[in-house]
Amino acid sequence: MEKLIDLKSASERLGGLSIWTLRAWAYSGRIASVKVSTRLLIPVEEIDRLITEGTRPRRQRSAEASGGAARKSKAPEVALQPDAR
Fold this sequence. Notes:
alpha+beta, three-stranded antiparallel beta sheet, 3 strands
């Protein structure tokens, strides 16, 4: 039997995501849910799935940036023209 949690607990596990957002996702089918009388419950596995799918891999830093060298500017270089007066 899967463990079910209420919307408030699910919201807390998801970093404060709005209860109303979770409710909308449940009714639209974006997340699985169980309706028991007037209570809407979310399976813990569903919360874990949301976290797993939303997790981005850690970005690798280049050897240059981690070595303390100055980063190159991403702005394009512009050749300055002397004033033609």
